[in-house]
Amino acid sequence: MPSFKESISFLLNLLRWLGLLVPLAVVVGSSCALFLWMLEWVTQYRFMHPAILYGLPFAGVAVALSYYWWGGRAGGGNNLIIDEIHQPSEGVPLRMAPLVFIGTVVSHLFGASVGREGTAVQMGGSLASSFAKWFRLDKRSTSILLTAGVASGLGAVYGTPITGAVFGLEVLTLGALDYSALLPVAVTSIIADWTCHQWGIHHAVYPVTFKGLAAPGQIPFHVDAVLWVKVAIAAVAFGFASRAFAEGVYRLGPVIKKICPTPWLQPAIGGVATILLVWLLGTRDYLGLGVMAPEAGGASIVNFFSTTHYDWSWLLKLVFTVIALATGYKGGEVTPLFFIGAGLGNALAPVLGVPGDLLAGVGMVAVFGGAVNTPLACTIMGVELFGGANIVYYATGCFIAYLCSGHTGIYLSQKVGVPKV
Amino acid sequence: MPSFKESISFLLNLLRWLGLLVPLAVVVGSSCALFLWMLEWVTQYRFMHPAILYGLPFAGVAVALSYYWWGGRAGGGNNLIIDEIHQPSEGVPLRMAPLVFIGTVVSHLFGASVGREGTAVQMGGSLASSFAKWFRLDKRSTSILLTAGVASGLGAVYGTPITGAVFGLEVLTLGALDYSALLPVAVTSIIADWTCHQWGIHHAVYPVTFKGLAAPGQIPFHVDAVLWVKVAIAAVAFGFASRAFAEGVYRLGPVIKKICPTPWLQPAIGGVATILLVWLLGTRDYLGLGVMAPEAGGASIVNFFSTTHYDWSWLLKLVFTVIALATGYKGGEVTPLFFIGAGLGNALAPVLGVPGDLLAGVGMVAVFGGAVNTPLACTIMGVELFGGANIVYYATGCFIAYLCSGHTGIYLSQKVGVPKV
Question: Nearest-CA residue of chain B relative to A182?
Answer without folding.
Answer: B399
